[in-house]
Amino acid sequence: MNKLISIDDVKTFLKDGMGLMVGGFMGVGTPSSLVSAVMDANIKNIKLIATDTATPEKAVGPLIVNKRIKKLIASHIGTNPETRDK
User: Fold this and answer.
1) Which of 75, 69, 57, 65 has the alpha carbon at shortest distance from 16?
2) Cβ atoms within 10 A of the Cβ of 76, count?
3) Is the dihedral of CA 26, 81, 48, 52 positive or negative?
4) How does pLDDT run across 38-58, given as a tens digit for each residue?
5) What is the mean pLDDT of the chain?
6) Can you tell me where the transmembrane regions are (predicted)?
7) How far is it, in rounded angstroms, from Cα 70 to Cα 2?
8) Is residue 31 a contact partner of residue 23, using CB atoms and an 8 Å limit?
9) CA–CA distances in Å: residue 67 to residues 4, 29, 34, 49, 78
């Protein structure tokens, strides 16, 4: 049994107000395909759990910049001025 699913199949689970927990640190190991899918689907009001918010253009940074996050739980936000300013 294959436990991997395509990004197109993942898109069927995306919805406004969902919780999203991602791994990685400063963009290394962050699921960039998932972040892109969330951006493409125009998902909003996300409750995000991540170790950091990287930089505005990297990893989950675009979600912050484009105001897709409603609630953030993270341990490091210092390198993304968009997060610090909110």
Assistant:
1) 69
2) 14
3) positive
4) 999 999 999 999 999 999 999
5) 94
6) 20-39
7) 34
8) yes
9) 29, 22, 17, 15, 18
